[in-house]
Design the sequence.
């Protein structure tokens, strides 16, 4: 291929030259194989140390990728290539051996074909670059069965970000002995450097592939440096590959935050909530309750791995160690805990704006924008510029343990027992503020038809309503029908004490486009009602779609008059809207394929239609 000609593949003994920090034969041979294919200049096994962080961030500063932030300790600003700002769903593939196993919601390519095509992209792709080998563990290292990954990458940005987002380095190398299993994660930005060719600040390739091989527990990512495409522990491993592990091993890998709530009576509950990307997980995970006496503590903000405990309850673990949060909309009023977390430093900001006094800025950080900024494209910006200064999907990457609201048990290898699960999306109409499912199967049904307007977290149109089952549409590693069956099967487990399921919508709007609900800290009012329902202590009205609070049952003490007046509209179950909704649900279910959509869900849909007809 052309690459081989342009970039002479060097000395094949290269892999041996690197001082390996591991004696794991599987890792050594894989590293040697990848080095031979991708032809890096050198190989570095990452130890995860502060010294390594300093070396890598200094290199990124020298290259012009990072700009140090004088206003925040040990923190950096960077902007990406303008075409590499979000996950690329149309370039994301589930390469299962059988096409049917990827299901109708995933792009599928035969694994042999995909390996053949990607191998040619990888050939010589790391020329002139350093290949980093990063060992990491998803979840606490002390877990009964820790899940390891090893990521090979030619990106310093990725190596630095993985230090924040995962438990990595020497502590993991120590445990990855002998034949310990690990998920193979290969990543290249796909931008080889010829002899003497200067690097660019954000190397990437126009062609991108984010490929998953579920049977061999392997991830191949090529051409992008963006978090969701390149930090392979996150969506690729912890959701796409882990959903397959969960199917095979009887647990759930979900796109959920984990939150600890303590009532004024000192009663504690843990909840999990699944919302599509950029629909409020991180904010709910760091909630500052507006109801006096309530305390909220963060366990996780994006991913929950849930396994049954001996008592039959589902225990959730946050597999990550950092937050990769949406910056716009994050301010001291909406999310003070996120602001305090990043103020503590040790953070990386991507595609935000940069202020004249050496700090970051984004829409929603302050009420008034600064008079002058450098925007995310690196251009001069003033409030008159007429375009956002920060990219709508700009992100902060920051360690969990710096978060003032972090729960002490966030790192507990046993996880926390989940009392309730919330599914939500961004819907301007139809979906009420909250509705409680009748039972587990009905809850699984509501989650299976979850819908949301698309956001800037993925490339493509924004604001289009689509079905996003369990907020997992872009993150499922296998057939969506089988996934629903796996969820339903949770109830068949002997002695299962399953959480109650609720659907929520913080984003319903009035006819003139205004939010009907203030959201953020006031969401505790909705959670309070849900927790009271667990003990049977809250009033509800039985509607065709589930139990909905009466306006009087919600604690609205201290809520502004404006929103009080809107509460009826926020809670309304409008039969006409639902009839319209059913048509779209029918279309969605029709795409799943008759033999793989569980009968129980088809029955739930039929029952809903009947209830609506009778309403
Ligand atoms: P995540 O990607 O699911 O973690 O979503 P985030 O918590 O980062 O939120 C994404 C965007 O939605 C941000 O701009 C938030 O400010 C906004 N957001 C989050 N929660 C709420 C809410 O309760 N109400 C409203 N109106 N906006 C919210
Ligand atoms: P989030 O995920 O938007 O759910 O926080 C990050 C991503 O899109 O990669
Ligand atoms: Mn988030």
Sequence:
């Amino acid at each position: 291929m052309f690459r081989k000609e342009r970039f002479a593949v060097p000395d094949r003994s290269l892999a041996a030259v690197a001082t390996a920090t591991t004696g794991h034969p599987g890792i050594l041979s894989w590293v040697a194989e990848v080095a031979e294919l991708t032809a890096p200049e050198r190989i570095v096994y990452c130890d995860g140390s502060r010294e390594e962080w300093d070396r890598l961030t200094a290199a990124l500063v020298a290259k012009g990728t990072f700009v140090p932030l004088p206003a925040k300790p040990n923190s950096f600003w960077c902007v990406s290539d303008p075409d590499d700002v979000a996950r690329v769903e149309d370039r994301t593939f589930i390469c299962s051996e059988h096409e049917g196993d990827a299901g109708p919601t995933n792009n599928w390519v035969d694994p042999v074909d995909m390996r053949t095509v990607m191998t040619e992209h990888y050939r010589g792709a790391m020329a002139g670059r350093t290949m980093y080998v990063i060992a990491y563990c998803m979840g606490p290292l002390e877990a009964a069965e820790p899940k390891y990954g090893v990521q090979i990458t030619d990106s310093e940005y990725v190596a630095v970000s993985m230090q924040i987002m995962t438990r990595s380095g020497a502590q993991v190398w120590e445990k990855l002995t002998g034949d310990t299993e690990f998920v193979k994660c290969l990543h290249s930005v796909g931008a080889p450097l010829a002899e003497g060719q200067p690097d660019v600040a954000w190397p990437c390739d126009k062609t991108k592939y984010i490929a998953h091989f579920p049977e061999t527990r392997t991830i191949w990512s090529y051409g992008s440096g963006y978090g969701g495409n390149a930090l392979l522990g996150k969506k690729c491993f912890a959701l796409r590959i882990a959903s397959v592990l969960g199917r095979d091993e009887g647990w759930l890998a979900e796109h959920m935050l984990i939150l600890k709530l303590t009532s004024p009576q000192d009663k504690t509950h843990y909840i999990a909530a699944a919302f599509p990307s950029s629909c409020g997980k991180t904010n709910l995970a760091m909630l500052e309750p507006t109801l006096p006496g309530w305390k909220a503590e963060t366990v996780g903000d994006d991913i929950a791995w849930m396994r049954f405990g001996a008592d039959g309850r589902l225990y959730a673990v946050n597999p990550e160690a950092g937050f990769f949060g949406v910056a716009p909309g994050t301010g001291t009023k909406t999310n003070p805990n996120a602001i305090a977390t990043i103020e503590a430093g040790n953070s990386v900001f991507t595609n935000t704006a940069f202020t004249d006094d050496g700090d970051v800025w984004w829409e929603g950080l302050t009420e008034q924008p600064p008079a002058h900024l450098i925007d995310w494209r690196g251009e001069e910006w003033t409030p008159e510029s007429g375009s956002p200064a920060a990219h709508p999907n700009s992100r902060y990457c920051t360690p969990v343990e710096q978060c003032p609201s972090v729960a002490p048990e966030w790192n507990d290898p046993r996880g926390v027992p989940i009392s309730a699960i919330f599914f939500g999306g961004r819907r301007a109409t139809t979906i009420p503020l909250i509705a409680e499912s009748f039972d587990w199967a009905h809850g699984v049904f509501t989650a299976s038809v979850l819908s949301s307007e698309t956001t800037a977290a993925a490339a493509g149109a924004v604001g289009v309503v689509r079905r996003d089952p369990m907020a997992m549409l872009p993150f499922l590693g296998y057939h969506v029908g089988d996934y629903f069956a796996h969820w339903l099967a949770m109830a068949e487990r002997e002695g299962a004490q399953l959480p109650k399921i609720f659907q929520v919508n913080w984003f319903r709007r009035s006819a003139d486009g205004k939010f009907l609900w203030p959201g953020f800290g006031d969401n505790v009012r909705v959670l309070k009602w849900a927790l009271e329902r667990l003990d049977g202590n809250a009033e509800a009205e039985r509607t065709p779609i589930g139990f909905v609070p009466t306006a009087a049952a919600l604690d609205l003490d201290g809520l502004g008059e404006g929103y009080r007046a809107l509460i009826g509209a926020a809670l309304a179950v409008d039969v006409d809207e639902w009839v319209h909704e059913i048509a779209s649900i029918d279309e969605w279910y029709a795409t799943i394929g008759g033999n793989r959509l569980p009968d129980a869900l088809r029955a739930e849909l039929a029952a809903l239609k009947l209830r609506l007809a009778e309403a």
Remarks:
- The pocket of manganese (II) ion (ligand 3) is lined by residues 281-282, 301-302, 325-326 (CB under 6 Å).
- Residues 125 and 320 are 29 Å apart (CA to CA).
